[in-house]
Amino acid sequence: MKKYFTLLVFFLVPLCAIAQTPKFTYVTEFQALPEFGPTLAVAVDSHGGLYFLQFSSPNPNMTACIYVADPLNANSANDLILVDDAIADTNVPSGRGMHGLTVDSKGNVYIALESGANTTATIRKLSPAPEFKPVDEFGGGVVWPEKRYTGLDIMNDDILIAITWTDVDFWNAHDPYSPFLHSLTGGQTYQRDCAYNPNTGDIYLSRNRGLGVTPVDSCSVVRGGSANNLAGYTQIEMNFIPQGGIGGEYGAHNQKIGYDAVNDFIMIPDYERSQHVMAFYRPSDLTNPVTVIDTTDSPNGPTAYPTDAAAYTNSKGETYVFITTWTDKRILIYQLGEVTDVWGWDLF
I need a surface site. Which of 226, 251, 292, 346 has the fewest CB within 10 A? Predict the structure, then answer.
């Protein structure tokens, strides 16, 4: 009998470990560039290099794309590189700016400028760091799509997902002037961002707008298709994550979304708690997050508005999560699991 009990314990221990609540540990943080506006979208390349966008607020033309080669050790403005080919010659009013951001497997960077007008909104494709040159095949590096895109994600190196407040478009990532590969309409305003799940083919759409309703849903979903079957995406389904959204007639820009394919986390801000948090959901259960980051462990105090999150897992299996913040323009870095020796880590 003892033998069987020992075997039972042997098999149950891994199951208990799997069932444990994921824990994130604070690592470090740094400030965005002070001459630009609030931080918005964030993305990580395959080498762990970090990109983030800053918005135009409170004044016009305060939008920018920033690159950080070694975010774990970024501690001054000298570590932040302005991607100066990120914006076409457009006058960007206050309350608008670069909104969508993604990086493909080769390191090419895609940036959507939501300028407030169809005629001046753009999408750019730039070469990998540190050159950031306009990619000629992509319309000379910048296109004017006559649509105000708010979110971007890459399905693969050939297909770009771009969303407006109500639409989802699938672009040829090499020939932007070819017809859309596929397009959906009928989303519920205001869609802010998109995140692709390569494990299931699902596309998550963060959104926020609540008119006299509680709770406010924060995420819609598009499913049924794949990169090889775009026609399988037939509708935008509402209320995928039925809580956590910012209420109000117009919602707010600062509710983006990310997906960690390695650890199977949907990462989205939850603004319905008294302390706003970055929530981590399993796609199989959207009733409650499996864990949250409330940033109260930051030595600079909690942030009021966590905005977007991107995850990176290095060759050692260490996962880092990078969180942008709206009003205080910080980028916070957390590690999944316990941390032992912060400055001994090798991100690359």
Answer: 346
pLDDT classification of 285: cutoffs 50, 70, 90: very high
Question: In what order do the strands lie in the sheet containing 151-156?
Answer: 151-156, 159-163, 168-172, 182-184
What is this structure's pTM?
Answer: 0.91
In the DSSP assignment, the letter for residue 6 is H
Tell which residue, 298, 345, 285, 289, has the closest CA to residue 320. Answer: 345
Predicted confidence at residue 250, as pLDDT, reads 86
Helix or strand or coil: residue 139? helix
pLDDT at position 40 over 60: yes
Backbone angles phi, psi at 164, to 5 degrees: -105, -170
Strand order from edge to edge, sheet including 122-126: 97-103, 109-114, 122-126, 142-143
Residue 247, class by beta-carbon neighbours within 10 Å (0-12 exposed, 13-18 middle, 19+ buried)? Answer: middle
- Cross-sheet strand order for the sheet of 258-260: 258-260, 265-270, 277-281, 291-293
The pLDDT assigned to 6 comes to: 34
CB 260 within 8 A of CB 268: no
The span from the CA of 289 to the CA of 291, in Å, is 5
Which residue matches tokens 């389904």?
Answer: 237
Write a three-state SS string for 55-90. Answer: CCCCCCCCCEEEEECCHHHCCCHHHCEECCCCCCCC
Q: Half-sphere exposure (CA, 13 Å, Cβ side) for 141?
A: 14
Buried-exposed string 330-342: b where 16+ CB fall within 10 A, e elsewhere: bbbbbbbeeeeee
Tell whether the model's pLDDT for residue 184 goes beyond 80.
yes
- Identify which of 96, 104, 192, 201 has the alpha carbon closest to the alpha carbon of residue 151: 192
| pLDDT tens column, 309-337 | 999 999 999 999 999 999 999 999 999 99
- What are the tokens at 258? 């990310």
- Above 80 in pLDDT, residue 344? no
Tokens representing residue 47 in the block: 């080498």
Angle at 132 between CA 128 and CA 134, to 5 degrees: 105
- Do 269 and 260 meet the contact criterion of CB atoms below 8 Å apart? no
